[in-house]
Amino acid sequence: MKLWGGRFRKKESELMDKFNKSINIDKRLYCEDIKGSIAHVKMLVKCNILSEDEGKKIINGLNSILYDLENGKLKIDASYEDIHTFVEMTLTKRIGEVGKKLHTARSRNDQVALDMKLYIKKKGKDVIDEIEKLQKIIAKKGEENPYIMPGYTHLQRAQVVTFKHHIMAYYYMLERDKKRILNGLDILDESPLGCCALAGTTYNIDREYTAKELGFKKCIDNFLDGISDRDYIIELLSAFSIIMMHLSRLSEELILWSSKEFNFIEIDDNFTTGSSIMPQKKNPDGAELIRGKTGRVYGNLVALLTTMKALPLSYNKDMQEDKEHFFDSLDTVIDCLVIMGEMLKGLKVKKDNMIKAVRKGFLNATEIADYLVKKGVPFRDAHKIVGDIVLYCEDKGIEIEEMKIQELRQFSSLIDEDIYDFIDYENILNKGIKKKML
Ligand code: ARG
Fold it and tell me: Which end of the chain is less crowded, N or C, counting CB atoms within 10 A of the terminal residue's CB?
């Protein structure tokens, strides 16, 4: 069940065999592994390293393995060391001795780097698709809910905004997340195939051919770099961590807003859960789990950075750990993007409660200062005047718009009746660049 063994006198310990094995993790690379092998064999034939007939037999064998795996006729046998071993040994079982020629001018080191790059290129696009789906849902939710709500800084009511503008902030975060993934995919778009174990090969192989055949922009220039680089995984794990950070912030807001304290939204029953003891409870578990899973995605990033940080060139077995971290983060990010989208679809926005909240807490104070500035008061002086007005209102337990004109004029004789229109919350959003939030 191994591709090596000649130079050993003793058998590997069972413990070591289990410890060393990666098939249960890397089996999901079977398609990329086979496609990479087919391109490699085509190249070997083109370079007269294998005969046409040998090439045909190996390629047919590889295609039959792929077909049978995809149709459930062949199961990946976990007693092999890794997916590369499984494919090569299954090939030899199927087509005989000629299968043993597949690994000419190749190592598992360039093979595994190739498989991962091909897999990431495919899955990176899936993540982008999910981001775009979520963006569409966010934009629709925003369009449907153009209502005013309190905007916060320091979690204190600050100024009036719209629900649409607030939720659309996440749309733009996701837009940048997409660019980060695309950038990561662009940087990794160089084929490692042909770097072999670390030092290339004495064969005159055509690396450009396999690079082109497999859809890469070019080949990696340096052999040692080609097989020992894992930046491309770290780059994607970092982009995934940032996506999760964004989803976690949104989750946090959904959790806060669905509490009785805010009461701005209701998360639909289908993304909440109940309590085994408290019959009244409806808990925002979907959002909490997204927030919680952010920790494991950050963890995977830090784990791989730490694994890689002191590795001498070139390949070291430590690097086998990369896949578990990557796959776990990939699955988690896709799940969370999907769950967030589905949860947002059913989200009920409580317009009246948001409007009520806008009307408490002097969210128009800045606009009163703007009003005074328009009448010629320097902003710093206007700021002080409105500060005094706020203190006055706090003492009386009223809002600024509830003050009589005579009361307001005690603070500045420049204040006229037109102030009430100016500081009306709906009107505020029709002024200057604030219209953008509508
Ligand atoms: N399972 C290995 C990994 O994921 C494949 C490469 C093995 N290379 C080696 N030199 N043992 O890294």
Answer: C
Ligand 1 atom with the shortest distance to the CA of 22: 1
Nearest to 399 by CA among 370, 437, 435, 363: 363
Residues in contact with 155: Cβ distance below 8 Å, sequence separation at least 6, in sequence order: none
Nearest 5°: CA angle at 233, between 308 and 209? 110
| Cα–ligand 1 centroid distance for 325 (angstroms) | 16
The tokens describing 372, both together, are: 């005074």
Which CATH code is given to the segment(s) 360-437?
A: 1.10.40.30
Q: Which CATH architecture describes the domain 14-101?
A: Orthogonal Bundle (1.10)
* 134 CA → ligand 1 middle, Å: 37
Ligand 1 mean position, distance from CA 95 (Å): 25
* pLDDT averaged per 10 residues, the chain (length 438): 85 92 98 98 98 98 98 97 98 98 97 98 98 98 98 97 98 98 98 98 98 98 98 98 98 98 96 91 96 98 98 97 98 98 98 97 96 97 97 97 97 97 95 93
Where do the CATH 1.10.275.10 domains begin and end in the chain?
A: 14-101
* pLDDT score for 1: 75
Instruction: Answer yes or no: is the ipTM higher than 0.95.
Output: yes
Residue 301 CA to residue 346 CA, distance in Å, equals 32
Pick from 28, 103, 109 the residue to mutate for probing ligand 1's pocket: most ligand atoms within 8 Å of its CB: 109
Closest ligand 1 atom to 84 CA = 5
**Pocket of ligand 1, beta carbon within 6 A:** 22, 26, 82, 108-109, 112, 315, 317, 319-320
Residue 219 φ/ψ, nearest 5 degrees: -100, 155
Task: Specify the ligand 1 atom closest to the Cα of 197.
Answer: 10
Q: Does domain 108-202+213-355 have CATH number 3.20.20.140?
A: no
Euclidean distance between CA atoms 237 and 225, whole angstroms: 20
